[in-house]
Design a protein that fits this description.
Number of helices: 8
Radius of gyration: 19 Å
Largest sheet: 2 strands, antiparallel
Number of strands: 2
Helix content: over 70%
Distance between the termini: 47 Å
Number of domains: 2
Order of helices and strands: HHHEEHHHHH
Strand content: under 5%
Strand order of the largest sheet: 1-2
Structural class: mainly alpha
Protein backbone atom coordinates (compact mmCIF):
# COMPACT_ATOMS: atom_id res chain seq x y z
CA UNK A 1 0.00 0.00 0.00
CA UNK A 2 1.55 3.36 -1.01
CA UNK A 3 2.07 6.05 1.58
CA UNK A 4 -0.13 9.12 1.26
CA UNK A 5 1.79 12.26 0.18
CA UNK A 6 0.28 14.07 3.16
CA UNK A 7 1.84 11.59 5.60
CA UNK A 8 5.16 11.85 3.80
CA UNK A 9 5.12 15.65 4.08
CA UNK A 10 4.16 15.37 7.78
CA UNK A 11 7.12 13.07 8.31
CA UNK A 12 9.42 15.50 6.54
CA UNK A 13 8.03 18.33 8.68
CA UNK A 14 8.56 16.33 11.88
CA UNK A 15 12.18 15.49 11.01
CA UNK A 16 12.95 19.06 9.95
CA UNK A 17 11.23 20.46 13.05
CA UNK A 18 13.23 18.15 15.30
CA UNK A 19 16.54 19.11 13.68
CA UNK A 20 15.59 22.78 13.91
CA UNK A 21 14.70 22.24 17.57
CA UNK A 22 18.18 20.85 18.28
CA UNK A 23 19.96 23.82 16.70
CA UNK A 24 17.47 26.25 18.27
CA UNK A 25 18.13 24.74 21.67
CA UNK A 26 21.85 25.36 21.16
CA UNK A 27 21.21 29.01 20.28
CA UNK A 28 18.71 29.55 23.10
CA UNK A 29 20.86 27.83 25.73
CA UNK A 30 23.63 30.32 24.95
CA UNK A 31 21.24 33.29 25.16
CA UNK A 32 21.20 34.15 21.46
CA UNK A 33 18.48 35.82 19.40
CA UNK A 34 16.91 32.86 17.61
CA UNK A 35 15.80 29.98 19.76
CA UNK A 36 13.95 26.70 19.73
CA UNK A 37 10.64 27.89 18.31
CA UNK A 38 12.09 30.21 15.68
CA UNK A 39 14.56 27.81 14.14
CA UNK A 40 12.26 24.77 14.42
CA UNK A 41 9.41 26.63 12.72
CA UNK A 42 11.61 27.97 9.93
CA UNK A 43 13.19 24.58 9.28
CA UNK A 44 9.82 22.85 9.32
CA UNK A 45 8.26 25.45 7.01
CA UNK A 46 11.10 25.05 4.52
CA UNK A 47 10.50 21.30 4.42
CA UNK A 48 6.72 21.66 4.06
CA UNK A 49 6.84 24.29 1.31
CA UNK A 50 9.45 22.33 -0.61
CA UNK A 51 7.62 19.02 -0.15
CA UNK A 52 4.33 20.47 -1.37
CA UNK A 53 6.02 22.17 -4.32
CA UNK A 54 7.79 18.94 -5.23
CA UNK A 55 4.45 17.12 -5.32
CA UNK A 56 2.56 19.89 -7.11
CA UNK A 57 4.94 21.54 -9.58
CA UNK A 58 7.45 20.17 -12.07
CA UNK A 59 10.21 22.62 -11.06
CA UNK A 60 10.83 23.90 -7.54
CA UNK A 61 13.79 26.22 -8.11
CA UNK A 62 11.74 29.44 -7.88
CA UNK A 63 10.11 28.36 -4.65
CA UNK A 64 13.47 27.48 -3.09
CA UNK A 65 14.90 30.84 -4.15
CA UNK A 66 11.92 32.66 -2.63
CA UNK A 67 12.16 30.70 0.62
CA UNK A 68 15.81 31.65 0.96
CA UNK A 69 15.05 35.28 0.13
CA UNK A 70 12.27 35.47 2.72
CA UNK A 71 14.40 33.89 5.42
CA UNK A 72 17.22 36.24 4.46
CA UNK A 73 14.93 39.15 5.35
CA UNK A 74 14.10 37.51 8.68
CA UNK A 75 17.80 37.06 9.36
CA UNK A 76 18.51 40.68 8.47
CA UNK A 77 15.98 41.71 11.10
CA UNK A 78 17.86 39.66 13.71
CA UNK A 79 21.14 41.49 13.15
CA UNK A 80 21.57 44.49 15.42
CA UNK A 81 24.18 47.19 15.60
CA UNK A 82 24.90 48.16 19.19
CA UNK A 83 24.81 51.88 19.91
CA UNK A 84 26.18 51.63 23.46
CA UNK A 85 29.14 53.76 24.45
CA UNK A 86 31.28 50.84 25.63
CA UNK A 87 31.26 48.99 22.29
CA UNK A 88 29.93 51.26 19.53
CA UNK A 89 29.11 49.60 16.25
CA UNK A 90 29.31 46.04 17.59
CA UNK A 91 27.25 43.64 15.46
CA UNK A 92 25.02 41.18 17.35
CA UNK A 93 22.93 38.33 15.99
CA UNK A 94 24.96 37.60 12.87
CA UNK A 95 25.70 33.97 13.79
CA UNK A 96 22.07 33.35 14.80
CA UNK A 97 20.91 34.80 11.48
CA UNK A 98 23.38 32.57 9.64
CA UNK A 99 22.17 29.56 11.65
CA UNK A 100 18.56 30.33 10.69
CA UNK A 101 19.56 30.59 7.04
CA UNK A 102 21.59 27.36 7.20
CA UNK A 103 18.74 25.50 8.88
CA UNK A 104 16.40 26.73 6.17
CA UNK A 105 18.60 24.88 3.72
CA UNK A 106 18.27 21.78 5.92
CA UNK A 107 14.48 22.11 5.73
CA UNK A 108 14.63 22.45 1.95
CA UNK A 109 16.92 19.43 1.62
CA UNK A 110 14.59 17.33 3.78
CA UNK A 111 11.60 18.59 1.80
CA UNK A 112 13.33 17.30 -1.33
CA UNK A 113 13.65 13.89 0.31
CA UNK A 114 17.36 13.89 1.18
CA UNK A 115 16.99 12.90 4.84
CA UNK A 116 20.52 11.71 5.52
CA UNK A 117 21.94 14.87 3.97
CA UNK A 118 19.67 16.99 6.20
CA UNK A 119 20.84 15.20 9.35
CA UNK A 120 24.48 15.51 8.24
CA UNK A 121 24.14 19.21 7.49
CA UNK A 122 22.60 19.74 10.93
CA UNK A 123 25.63 18.02 12.43
CA UNK A 124 27.91 20.40 10.54
CA UNK A 125 25.89 23.41 11.70
CA UNK A 126 26.19 22.24 15.31
CA UNK A 127 29.91 21.62 14.90
CA UNK A 128 30.40 25.16 13.64
CA UNK A 129 28.29 26.61 16.46
CA UNK A 130 30.14 24.58 19.13
CA UNK A 131 33.57 25.03 17.56
CA UNK A 132 34.88 27.36 20.24
CA UNK A 133 33.56 25.19 23.09
CA UNK A 134 35.26 21.98 21.94
CA UNK A 135 38.80 21.85 23.40
CA UNK A 136 40.34 19.99 20.47
CA UNK A 137 38.96 22.55 17.98
CA UNK A 138 39.13 25.73 20.07
CA UNK A 139 42.89 25.88 19.54
CA UNK A 140 42.25 26.54 15.84
CA UNK A 141 40.55 29.85 16.69
CA UNK A 142 42.53 33.08 16.30
CA UNK A 143 44.05 34.46 19.51
CA UNK A 144 41.44 37.27 20.00
CA UNK A 145 38.63 34.70 19.83
CA UNK A 146 40.40 32.46 22.35
CA UNK A 147 40.76 35.42 24.74
CA UNK A 148 37.09 36.33 24.30
CA UNK A 149 36.01 32.75 25.00
CA UNK A 150 38.23 32.55 28.09
CA UNK A 151 36.54 35.70 29.40
CA UNK A 152 33.11 34.23 28.60
CA UNK A 153 33.92 31.00 30.46
CA UNK A 154 35.21 32.96 33.46
CA UNK A 155 32.00 34.99 33.55
CA UNK A 156 29.60 32.06 33.14
CA UNK A 157 31.45 29.29 34.95
CA UNK A 158 33.05 31.21 37.82
CA UNK A 159 32.81 29.03 40.96
CA UNK A 160 33.98 31.84 43.24
CA UNK A 161 30.68 33.75 43.05
CA UNK A 162 28.67 33.75 46.21
CA UNK A 163 25.19 32.20 46.24
CA UNK A 164 23.38 35.59 46.07
CA UNK A 165 25.26 36.54 42.90
CA UNK A 166 24.43 33.14 41.34
CA UNK A 167 20.74 33.65 42.18
CA UNK A 168 20.83 37.12 40.58
CA UNK A 169 22.46 35.65 37.45
CA UNK A 170 19.77 32.97 37.25
CA UNK A 171 17.02 35.62 37.54
CA UNK A 172 18.70 37.70 34.81
CA UNK A 173 18.93 34.67 32.53
CA UNK A 174 15.25 33.87 33.12
CA UNK A 175 14.25 37.45 32.29
CA UNK A 176 16.25 37.39 29.06
CA UNK A 177 14.49 34.22 27.89
CA UNK A 178 11.00 35.64 28.45
Amino acid sequence: MPISPDFLILGKAALAGFLGFVVGWERESHGHAAGVRTIALITMAGAVFTGIALDSFPVVDRLVANILTGVGFLGAGMILHAQSSDQPGQVRGLTSAAAVWAMTSVGIVIGLGHYFLGVGLTGFVLLLLWWQFLPFLAQLNPAPTRRKMAAWRALHYDDTKDDDAKDDDAKDDAEVRH
